[in-house]
Amino acid sequence: MRAYWAFTKKELMESAATYRLLILVCIFLLFGVMNPLIAKMTPQLVKEFMPAGMQMVLPEPSAVDSWMQFFKNVGQIGLAVLAILFSGMIAGEIQKGTLVLMVTKGLSRTTVLCSKFTVSVLLWTVSYVFCVGITYGYTVYFWNADEIKNLMPALLGVWLFGVLLLASDLLGSVLSKSSYTSLLFTGGLVAVMFLVNIVPKVQKYNPIRLVSEPSGLISGSLKLSGFYTAFAVTGGMILMFLLLSVLVFRKKQL
Questions:
Q1: Angle ∠(181,206,25) on CA atoms, nearest 5
Q2: Which residue windows are transmembrane per the record (predicted)?
Q3: Exposed, middle or buried: residue 63 (CB in 10 Å: 0-12, 13-18, 19+)?
Q4: 224 vs 105, which has greater pLDDT?
Q5: What SS3 class is residue 28?
Q6: 69 vs 124: CA distance, rounded Å
Q7: Contact at 8 Å (CB) between 87 and 173?
Q8: Are the C-beta atoms of 107 and 10 separated by less than 8 Å?
Q9: Which of 78, 123, 141, 177 is the most exposed place for a label (fewest CB within 10 A)?
């Protein structure tokens, strides 16, 4: 356990030194400010750039629009940034040769994986909480948020999908010696999810629902009970990826 905490501390310090933490927090803080502001200003911008003489009745922006903007920005750009930043969790250590030295001195490979995954989830969680908090504050300031439904489950779904991407990055990094291959592995996983989602009978099991349909949850057009299976499958995939990472990494030649 002492080795786990020591390696985790080392990973946290390295994340700060390499500006990974700073980049992640800054991007999600920016999203937190942008989400409600874009929802607030969009109707005005549309009117400004509308051709002369043309009239269009636009609905007044609401708290729902702010959170829809949140799920659009974070669920697409934010998660892509997350996957890119952590794509070389193990591959980078192998390429630098630092991991070989630590393992030969008795550091458990399982400890390495657990520490890497813990730090990545921690940084993702901190950045995500900042983004949610800022979006929530501005949304409550501009609008009445009483109309929002199932906000916490919708937010939890996006966070859980982010953890799934991190677990996929970890497995991809273990399977290869390149961060690019790891990123392709995660990108391929997401692409398969989108393709499988075409089949109606499979949709309720697909983790991609957690990031593609949260707007339906907060608007009330979709029921929360329809997402329970997707939550369970996502959790199961995370555990499976972590287990596979441990099994593969134990036999991997460094």
A1: 55
A2: 21-39, 74-92, 113-139, 151-171, 183-200, 227-249
A3: buried
A4: 224
A5: helix
A6: 19
A7: yes
A8: no
A9: 141
Backbone angles phi, psi at 100, to 5 degrees: -60, -45
pTM of structure: 0.91
The pair of structure tokens assigned to 234 is 């996502």
Q: Which residues contact 32 (CB under 8 A, 6 or more apart)?
A: 130, 131, 132, 133, 134, 135, 138
Integer CA distances (angstroms), 241 to 38, 51, 101, 173, in order? 37, 53, 26, 11
Going by C-beta distance under 8 Å and a sequence separation of 6 or more, which residues neighbour residue 130? Answer: 25, 28, 29, 32
Q: What is the pLDDT of residue 129?
A: 95
Cα–Cα distance for residue pair 2/108, rounded to 1 Å: 11
Which pLDDT does position 15 carry in this prediction?
Answer: 82
Q: Under 8 Å CB-to-CB from 186, ≥6 apart: which residues?
A: 83, 87, 165, 168, 169, 172
Q: Is the pLDDT of residue 12 over 70?
A: yes
Contact 35, 14 (CB under 8 A): no
